């Protein structure tokens, strides 16, 4: 790890270990910085069925209308200040992960058992947004993490939205990972109807419990280092296996274990010279978090086996979104700069047939 990195997190929040439910979605998000200063944020998307995801480009001045409780589009109405590229689900305007032309990125991450939205009075419904509208609202209106934090801290209304059948008939319980082109990161959570925003020194996010719990949990791994350990100071007795410096960090797919492992990897890797090399490094790291279908089984819901649907990486300097899917491992790229001046919504498929190079 970077020298003393975990020690900067050595504080106690007074939070005991909690029993929390297995997540339906098991996403992992990271951030990397190239030596040329470019910021790359990347994440996996896991779910138990096909979300019919597409790449979508929203033009400037696109009219968004937030969902209100019960499902009608009677929430906040606004027009986008910025062009946006992102990944949607089920053909909706909701953006699971996206980036705007200013280099702001927002991702939706599952937070079951903890996310709790506001009971918005009827008279204020028209000023509220649902949990799945948050990413579009942030990407439409803000250019930096600091701007987002000021807006969140001044108060936004997140209503309970609409129960969705793909989520078992309840609103999506979410928290939000925000990055900007300067390398700042922010986590936004709505718990018991109250909004919290945390600057994120790690750039890492997974799922439940809440972000402050994950930071406190890192105290258990203060001695983890990427360096191979010697058994004698003169190096005359050494382990015959590489990688023993990180022995003991958890390797399972629970959110707490993935969080620790993602911090360990992102804080240990050698910085890449350029943005593109950092993109490839991000995919290499996230390969270690891929969940093959069937590795996680929910006995209460046979067949609802969580697996990795797609992985994406956003180059926040060059405004390029890279992705591959479970069915097509070829790396694809959408350059937002090429489409930023469009005057209509554009859609691009994510699951083209994969071409296998035969030599």
Automatic annotation (TrEMBL):
Matches recorded under InterPro entries: CBAH/NAAA_C, Ntn_hydrolases_N, Peptidase_C59
Keywords on record: Hydrolase, Signal
Molecular function per GO: hydrolase activity
Gene3D superfamilies membership: Penicillin V Acylase, Chain A
Signal peptide (residue range): 1-26
Pfam (any one): CBAH
Domain Choloylglycine hydrolase/NAAA C-terminal: from-to ranges: 27-337
Similarity remark: Belongs to the peptidase C59 family.
Name of this chain's protein: Choloylglycine hydrolase family protein
């Amino acid at each position: 790890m970077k020298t003393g990195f975990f020690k900067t997190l050595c504080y106690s929040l007074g939070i005991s270990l909690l029993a929390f439910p297995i997540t339906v979605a098991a996403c992992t998000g990271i951030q990397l910085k190239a030596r040329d200063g470019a910021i790359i944020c990347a994440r996996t998307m896991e779910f138990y069925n096909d979300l019919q995801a597409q790449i979508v480009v929203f033009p400037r001045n696109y009219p968004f209308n937030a969902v209100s409780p019960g499902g009608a589009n009677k929430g906040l109405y606004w027009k986008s200040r910025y062009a946006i590229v992102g990944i949607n689900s089920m053909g909706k305007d909701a953006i699971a992960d996206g980036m705007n032309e200013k280099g702001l990125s927002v991702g939706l991450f599952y937070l079951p058992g903890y996310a709790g939205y506001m009971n918005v009075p009827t008279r204020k419904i028209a000023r509220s947004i649902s949990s799945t509208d948050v990413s579009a609202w942030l990407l439409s209106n803000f250019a930096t993490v600091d701007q987002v934090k000021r807006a969140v801290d001044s108060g936004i209304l997140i209503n309970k939205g609409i129960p969705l059948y793909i989520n078992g008939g309840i609103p999506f319980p979410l928290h939000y990972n925000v990055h900007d082109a300067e390398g700042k990161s922010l986590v936004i959570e709505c718990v018991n109807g109250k909004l919290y925003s945390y600057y994120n020194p790690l750039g890492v996010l997974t799922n439940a419990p809440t972000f402050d719990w994950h930071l406190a949990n890192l105290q258990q791994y203060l001695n983890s280092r990427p360096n191979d350990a010697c058994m004698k100071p003169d190096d005359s007795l050494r382990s015959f296996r590489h990688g023993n410096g990180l022995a003991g960090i958890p390797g399972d797919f629970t959110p707490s274990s993935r969080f620790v492992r993602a911090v360990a990897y992102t804080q240990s890797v050698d910085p890449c010279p350029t943005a593109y090399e950092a993109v490839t490094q991000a995919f290499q790291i996230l390969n270690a978090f891929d969940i093959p279908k069937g590795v996680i089984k929910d006995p209460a819901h046979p067949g609802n086996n969580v697996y990795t649907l797609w992985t994406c990486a956003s180059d926040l300097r060059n405004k390029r979104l890279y992705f591959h899917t479970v069915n097509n491992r070829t790396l694809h790229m959408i350059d937002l700069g090429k489409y930023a001046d469009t005057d209509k919504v554009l859609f691009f498929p994510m699951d083209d047939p994969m071409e296998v190079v035969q030599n």
